[in-house]
Design brief:
mainly alpha, 5 domains
Length: about 725
């Protein structure tokens, strides 16, 4: 039998502490270092970050943390991290200074380019570090807003000799791929001996060794679980009540432990904790002002501090993010509204209008046009900063608070468009359905049709999207010719992907599109070129397609990459293909354009395959697959097929090709069948199976797939001459 032997401490972390100490030595010596700690909730990442901050003997520490309610507010985490350094803002070049000021809401202007914001943050760090070493700490990266993550990744990859450390922590599995490609350190459970010692320090009394060992095994050495699960439980409960909870996720069980401790506190203390949990920045004066509105005095903090659930010093810090979620789950809806209302009343409408609007929105019980209008203005500001997801969230909540059916429908439609632009495709249909409940004018109805078809195509590149896209284009012809051309181009693109399985879809789309007046915008140029290619053949289309490729230079037109890539292949224009692949990938990563990123990753991987960089291509395809699983976006398997074929491993390549063909035939994606045939020919030629290569190449060139048939002809010639 064992008894409590002392208080908890940072135990069993020699390897991690040595890594952090080494990092600090390098920074003091004038170098820059980057490190991402990854581990499950409660593994000790935050404790290691505290250890790091406490051991910065000479230098400055600035900290921020991702907070789930702010995960869609663009640049919110980055602004928190950089706020103590903004006195150096005037030392930056003008364009960088203006971009950062706009991103942080300190000034107005056009949406800032992510490159300028990234360079500005890099310069800000360098200026601060010129006075003394700088250690930047970011916790809970899995909840950091997308634009902050993009900029932090950009900066991390460019730090060199500035005496800057950037150390972040991400919870797995949610943050497994956040800040990908940076140096990382896995933070796993404690070794068994250290785990038992930590558990002994908090056990309430004698506990059988077998029970103790079972707790250690079930928690897998997770420090927070070891500290929190036994609290409030008697030895009898530990011995006989622990087992039935085994099926619950560890995070849920730890959170339930926090909920029990919160429930035991006085009512005013619970309300104080809830206010601190809802207020995401940790602003102490703001917290006290809100509590004053709620009629709660400073003494209410005592029991929560004594319980180790909160620290109130220069900033408010909850013991762990699970305390925040436990507070919110424990609260009644009326209590949450009351807290949001108090925070809205004490938030400066000039300095922080978006947080104020968000608090007001969550304090509202029913429709409120004043709050909805404020949210709509917040959405505009979010779009100006490049925050598509934030804008969608503001607009969605604005629609919910709108009573007038026409305005409600317009806001729901605007939210749907913002969700689509952000790559959150699965959320678009419900918003479109909400928009259709209200009175829509003809243009809005055409936009709904088009957007629904675009979502269908983005999620499944088979035949299904083609007819709805043509129907939407016809509706738009008189209402918005430019939008009609874009819809017809999408319809032709869908038919190109349907290919040999399209049953005449391509000719029908091209015939309809030919009746439209030609457009000089990039989409209009591609529409003209592909219409001519579809109806008149390759040679007449060449000048039009070349002009379209030459016109695609702006980042804003990179959404056409999914068609521009095959066109570049068709034209044998490798220079443009490589340029577009690199440009699109850089833009998608820099701006968080998730709807573009899977295609950009696949196209860039294709260029790497042909350059013989198979390992690099495989890494990009892995990133694309993970992104597709997270977002539901379709990840074209074209590059994976070609990579497998060029690697020449017959069994895995053949299995991938066969599975792809089955799936493509089921969905009606004939062009992918053509790519699979080309891959079969490449694989078979490489293995010396020339009859099989010839048969595959002949099947492929039997239909003129855009950007495929020409490549397959090369394999056909090789197979015919060698076989």
């Amino acid at each position: 039998m064992r008894r409590n032997t002392g208080g908890p401490a940072l135990r069993g972390r020699r390897r991690e502490r040595e890594a952090l100490d080494s990092l600090l030595r390098d920074v003091r010596a004038g170098h820059s270092r980057v490190l991402v700690l990854r581990g499950e909730a409660g593994a000790g990442k935050s404790a290691l970050l505290d250890h790091l901050a406490e051991h910065v003997r000479t230098g400055r520490v600035t900290r921020a943390a991702g907070v789930e309610p702010e995960s869609e507010i663009a640049y919110s985490a980055l602004q928190h991290l950089c706020a103590p350094l903004l006195r150096h803002l005037d030392r930056l070049p003008g364009p960088q200074r203006d971009a950062l000021a706009t991103a942080f809401g300190l000034g107005s202007g056009d949406p800032p380019e992510a490159l300028l914001v990234g360079l500005a943050v890099l310069g800000l760090f360098a200026e601060a570090a010129s006075e003394q070493p700088l250690v930047c700490i970011v916790d809970d990266v899995q909840w950091v807003d997308r634009m902050s993550e993009v900029i932090l990744t950009f900066v991390a990859r460019r730090l060199d000799a500035e005496s800057v450390a950037l150390v972040c922590a991400a919870r797995t599995p949610e943050g497994e791929h956040a800040l990908g490609g940076l140096p990382e350190l896995r933070v796993d459970g404690l070794p068994a001996a250290e785990a038992r010692a930590l558990l002994d320090s908090v056990l309430p009394g004698p506990v059988d060794d077998r029970v103790r060992d079972r707790i250690v095994a079930e928690t897998r050495g997770n420090p927070l679980a070891l500290l929190e699960l036994p609290r409030g439980l008697s030895p009898e409960e530990l011995a006989f009540g622990f087992g039935p909870q085994r099926a619950a996720p560890l995070v849920n069980r730890v959170e339930e432990g926090f909920q029990r401790r919160i429930a035991a506190l006085p009512a005013d203390t619970r309300m104080l904790l809830l206010t601190a949990a809802v207020e995401p920045v940790g602003d102490v004066p703001l917290l006290w002002r809100a509590l004053e509105r709620l009629g709660i005095g400073p003494d209410a903090a005592g029991p929560a501090q004594a319980a180790g659930l909160i620290e109130i010093a220069a900033r408010v810090r909850l013991r762990h993010p699970l305390v925040r979620s436990a507070c919110r789950r424990s609260a009644e809806a009326a209590e949450l509204r009351k807290v949001h209302r108090a925070l809205a009343e004490v938030t400066d409408p000039e300095q922080d209008p978006d947080r104020r609007a968000w608090h007001r929105a969550h304090a509202a019980v029913g429709p409120d046009e004043d709050v909805a209008g404020e949210l709509e203005r917040s959405a505009d500001r979010a779009l100006a900063r490049g925050g598509r997801s934030a804008a969608a969230s503001f607009l969605e909540r604005a629609a919910e608070l709108t009573l007038d059916p026409k305005t409600r429908a317009a806001r729901a439609l605007a939210a749907a468009r913002a969700r689509f632009a952000a790559g959150a495709l699965t959320q678009v249909p419900e918003l479109l359905a909400a928009a259709e409940l209200g009175p829509l004018d003809p243009l809005q109805r055409a936009v709904v049709e088009r957007l629904r078809a675009q979502v269908t195509f983005a999620l499944d590149r088979g035949r299904a999207a083609g007819p709805p896209l043509r129907a939407a284009a016809r509706r738009l012809e008189e209402l918005d010719p430019a939008a009609a051309r874009e819809a017809y181009l999408a319809a032709i693109g869908a038919a190109v992907h349907a290919g040999r399985l399209g049953d005449g879809d391509l000719r029908r789309a091209a015939d309809a599109a030919r009746a439209m007046p030609a457009g000089e915008e990039v989409a209009g140029l591609f529409l003209t070129g592909l219409t001519v290619w579809s109806l008149d053949g390759y040679a007449p289309a060449v000048p039009h397609l070349r002009r379209a490729l030459e016109g695609l230079t702006s980042d804003e037109d990179l959404g056409l990459l999914w068609l521009a890539g095959p066109v570049a292949h068709e034209m044998w224009d490798h220079t443009t293909w490589y340029r577009l692949a690199e440009q699109a990938l850089g833009y998608a990563r820099a701006t968080g354009a998730r709807s573009l990123l899977p295609t950009a990753l696949v196209f860039r991987a294709s260029t790497l395959v042909l350059a013989g960089r198979f390992a690099d291509a495989s890494d990009l395809l892995h990133d694309a697959a993970v992104l597709g699983q997270a977002t539901g976006l379709t990840v074209p398997p074209t590059a994976a097929l070609v990579l497998a074929a060029h690697r020449g491993r017959e069994q895995p390549a053949t299995e991938l090709i066969d599975a792809t063909v089955r799936d493509a035939e089921a969905r009606g994606e004939g062009r992918l069948v053509g790519v699979a045939g080309y891959a079969t020919a490449v694989l078979s030629n490489g293995l010396g199976h020339y009859p099989a290569a010839l048969a595959a190449a002949r099947r492929t060139v039997a239909y003129d797939d855009l950007g495929v048939s020409g490549w397959a002809l090369g394999e056909l010639v090789e197979a015919a001459t060698r076989g």
